[in-house]
Known about the structure:
Layout: H1 3-16, H2 19-26, H3 30-44, E1 49-51, E2 56-58, H4 60-87, E3 92-98, H5 100-117, E4 121-127, E5 141-145, E6 153-161, E7 163-167, H6 169-175, E8 189-193, E9 204-208, E10 211-215, E11 218-223, H7 226-234, E12 240-243, H8 244-253, E13 257-258, E14 268-275, H9 282-295
Parallel strand pairs: 3-4, 3-5, 8-11
Antiparallel strand pairs: 1-2, 5-14, 6-14, 7-12, 7-13, 9-10
Amino acid sequence: MDQLQAIRAFARVVEAGSFTKAADTLGMPNASLTKSIQQLEAHLRVKLLLRTTRRVSVTPEGAQYYEKTQRLLKELDDVDASFSAAQSRPRGHLRIDMGSSIANLVVLPALPAFLARYPDIRVDMGVSDKHVNLIGDNVDCVIRGGELTDLSLIGRQVGSASWVTCATPAYLRDHGVPKHPSELEDGHVIAHYLSTRTGRGLPLNFAKGGEKLAIQGSRSVGVNESNAHLAAGLAGLGVMQTFKYAAAPHLASGALVPILEKWQPEPYPFYVVFPSNRYVSNRLRVFIDWAADLFATLD
Length: 299
């Protein structure tokens, strides 16, 4: 039995919650992974995992073994990295995930420069406004907006984005230009961005001096993807609040008109997030630093 391989296989099953997912991310047959863990359990003379047709659960002994071996695996990765990083440039497969507007308008246009600087890194990018499971989906990091609440994750703030409240000239001609956010509650409709977690329309937030307002308004349409949300606003489906970097070309062309500019909400923070129990590889480290430089240019 290769004990180190068996420990890594066991850890991946615990993190993924599935033998099949763990085998896929490790690039090994499901039968080989199962045999490896069975040999580890026989070696330890203790049951680590309980497997049913629907799910995998960790025994109390398995949870204790996972916690202790994770520290050992991290120390081993740190030792390996301290030698390899000094002798080679960043290389390998980097799996990242982010929202669609950030991917299409910020990261992908700049990515050729990153890959030119680090030609030995291969990037796979998941693009969706829905949050992924970093551990279960075997993602190295995600770029997320908003405050972090999951204590199992580590996040480095890389920048922030300003908001703009806007509508098309035709919409404003038909409904009037509001002078105060409260006017959006009467006689106006909102093109809402829908939360991918709750499915509910997010309120439009406003701040001026010490006063803060959250306006829900009457919904004309709700969209749960950022590029489609912008398209809804451009179609004249209502007042929208979106990131200024996304709306900038349409504001410049006059297709969208900014309103309530004195009522500016707080900028929206963006983080590069990764699991607290995962070693930060050299390739992930350089990506995080590059993302920080990139997001520093956001308006």
